[in-house]
Amino acid sequence: IIERDRLMVKNAGEYQRKNEYSSLYRLTSDLQYAVMNVRLVQVGMMFMKFHRIVRDVANLEDKKVDLLVEGTEIEIDRTVLKIISDSMVHLVRNAVSHGVEMPQERVKRGKEEAGTITLHAKNERDAVVIEISDDGKGIDANWIRQKLISKQFMSAEIANQIDDDDIINYIFESGFSSADHITAVSGRGVGMDVVRNAVNSIGGKIRLRTEVGKGTTFSLSLPTSLAVKSVMLFEVGKLSYAIPIVFTESVVSFTKKDFVWISKTLVVSYLDRTISVVFLRDLFAMETLNGFQKNNIGLSSFQNLLENEKVFVILITFGNKQVGLVVDKLIQQKEIVEKPLKYPLNEHKLMSGATILGSGNICLVLDIPSIMGILFKTNQFSATTIMEN
Questions:
Q1: pTM for this structure?
Q2: pLDDT at position 293, please?
Q3: How far is it, in rounded angstroms, from Cα 89 to Cα 47?
Q4: Could you count the other beta carbons within 10 Å of the beta carbon of residue 240?
Q5: Radius of gyration of the chain measured on its C-alpha atoms
Q6: How far apart are the first and last CA of the chain?
């Protein structure tokens, strides 16, 4: 693929050879997908083992639970399936333990005595979506809020200022457990953060939908393959970088007058939302994030903008949070083969890997989960070192 891109870039002006390049592109793409298909397995291989898991946990909890599986024919990379297998086990066990009510409680609420857990897989654009749903009691935001206060995760004043959706997502924080008692199944405060980290490690997303009294659904959006990634290429300075498309919501251009400084943070309004903006040029130039907000990082880049100059912003979304990354130049969207960084760059917190472009240049791939974690964990932007080594 890299050699094909190199040839096409090198001979881009030879229009008479366009048909030859089209044929080359088709043949290499066919070969790529043929090899990728060898790596694919049906999710039904994993789904089938959950019948026993649901039965065993239900017996431990003295509950009645049925399991439904749908979309077993959907195919996914066997490596992806292996990585998320333990996470799926945890989510299913949680659905039985935390989600489904006791039989007598369900009858009082007008439900069937036996609860139902559904595993559903489907294709969605370039991803495979696996949903774990239960028809149980759902997650009460106020109950989670009180748990956070009682466990001293935050003060009551702060907890009451956070909206319900964000409060519920605190179940993914390390050390948090919604169980009142430690059992063989739950209550140890270990699990949901591990699930989120496992999904993040392969460039996936996890979403949570819940309704009190009706049930909860965890939705895992996973890449079909780890071999090839669809990315957005851009430039900062004279170097090329890439952002995985799975984290990219949109690409928007603004002018200087569209930006506003609020509480030492640069923001922009887009589709009735106020979004924090970070100049990647300034982020890359820092050795540490010490004083990121205090020192108005990005102010100089903003002031150097011309009044009518176009500013390209890539809006990225991760973990129900959104940030705009200002880049110098947009290049294109394409598929790449990403390779991990070797020592000593393997500990770099802003980059996940690299690829070679058709021009022969190295292109670094941004580690969006890590960048978002740094920016929001340091929302008061305390000292955080970008490089561990």
A1: 0.70
A2: 47
A3: 10
A4: 18
A5: 24
A6: 33
Q: Which of 7-16, 123-132, 356-365 has the lowest mean pLDDT?
A: 7-16
Tokens of 356: 């070679």
Nearest-angstrom CA–CA distance, 75 and 72: 8
pLDDT at residue 383 above 90?
Answer: no
Task: Please report which confidence band the pLDDT of residue 120 belongs to, taking 50, 70 and 90 as the band edges.
Answer: very high
Mean pLDDT calculated for residue range 133-139: 92
pLDDT tens sequence across 353-366: 888 887 788 899 99
Give pLDDT, residue 119. Answer: 95
Classify 153 as helix, strand or coil: coil
> Tell me, what's the pLDDT at 187?
47
Q: Look at residue 172 and give its three-state secondary structure.
A: helix
The confidence score (pLDDT) of residue 385 equals: 38
- Mapping DSSP to helix (H, G, I), strand (E, B) and coil, where does residue 142 land? helix
Three-state DSSP state, 342: coil
Q: Are 175 and 148 in contact (CB under 8 A)?
A: no
Overall residue count recorded for the chain in this entry = 389
Helical residues (DSSP H) of 131-207, grouped into ranges: 141-150, 156-159, 164-168, 192-201
CB 319 within 8 A of CB 246: no
Predicted confidence (pLDDT) at residue 149 exceeds the cutoff of 90: no
- Matching residue, tokens 């519920």: 168
Beta bridge partners of 262: 265
The whole-angstrom separation of Cα 58 and Cα 244 is 40
- Give the span between the Cα atoms of 279 and 328, in whole angstroms: 9
Query: Which residues, in sequence order, are CB contacts of 64 under 8 Å at separation 6+?
Result: 58, 103, 113, 114, 115
Q: Which residues contact 199 (CB under 8 A, 6 or more apart)?
A: 84, 87, 205, 206, 220, 222
Q: At what angle do helices 78-94 and 192-201 cross, to 10 degrees?
A: 160
- What count of other Cβ atoms lies within 10 Å of the Cβ of residue 251? 16
